[in-house]
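Closing statement on the fe (iii) ion sub-project.
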Amino acid sequence: MRRPTSRIITVLALALTPILVQSIYTPEAREPGSVVVYTARIEKLIKPMFNAFTTKTGIKVTYFTAKAPELFERLRAEGPHTPADVLITVDAGNLWIADHAGYLQGFESPIIEKNIPAHLRAKDNAWVGLSVRARPIMYSTERVKPSALSTYEALGDSRWRGRLCLRTSRKVYTQSLVATMIKTLGEQQTEAVLRGWMKNQLRIFNSDTQILKAIAAGQCDVTIANTYYLARLQAKDPGFPVTVFWPNQNGRGVHVNISGAGVTKYATHRAEAIQLIEFLSSRAAQNLYADANYEYPANPAAEPDGLIAAWGSYKADSVDVAAAGALQAAAVKLMDRVGYK
Ligand code: FE
């Protein structure tokens, strides 16, 4: 149980947070014909789509951006008084947490069922994936031949000793990767894979971008990273000496995660909220949504951006992404056990 003092501090902290909150509490945000979004996706990425939605439907979108944990804290503290109708966040692990904390209500939509494949949606219809974020192997084009690469598991081969750099186990991306491995391979086999990586004197970094720059600088040769980080670096420098290897193509496929959305439990504009999410899943909006961050559309009818399409198509792991949430705790424990910091 939280003590009342910590609750007061939380409420005070929320009250003092200056960003955009005021526009959310304006009376028109509660009027019909408008919708309020709490989003962990940054303004630059989502604003063009909200504008397109408003142009199409006349429904006004008000939004508040923050990292997922802060949005969750807000939803918890505000309870039934929350102004939020829609929650948008990255990573199925986060969406699963939001669902299990009771921040979302399910909704049925034939449009979404048609637009988004089932494995990218919650079984209880609490949330739906809106973009796919692939997390393949990436390697130095200067020091690694792609023929040396095959699977995530094979990064435990001794040839990668002292050459493997990965993101910290504290990041939800790493936790989701390991959680979905546990789902498919089982805990024992996943542990063996992680021990293989550790044996290679795995070096840990705090961001994908840092690792990619370390590869370019010759400090590491291979990693696992989200493709949009590489796309950003390549957009600035087409000669950036790192590229993508699609692993596990003869097996389970490339690890993918999602960004996605759900209707909040206490949404006052439920119909508009559903309408917004349906719009975001549509083919036209999918390009705006995915391309803004060089992600892959979740709607298979939409084409990926040219820069990332150049890496070729890939077979994605079709494991239910909800496993990322359900097995997150097991993944954290497992990484702790093998010493993966
Ligand atoms: Fe990211």
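The first strand starts at residue 34 and ends at 39. With this model delivered, the sub-project is considered complete and its resources will be redirected to Aim 3.
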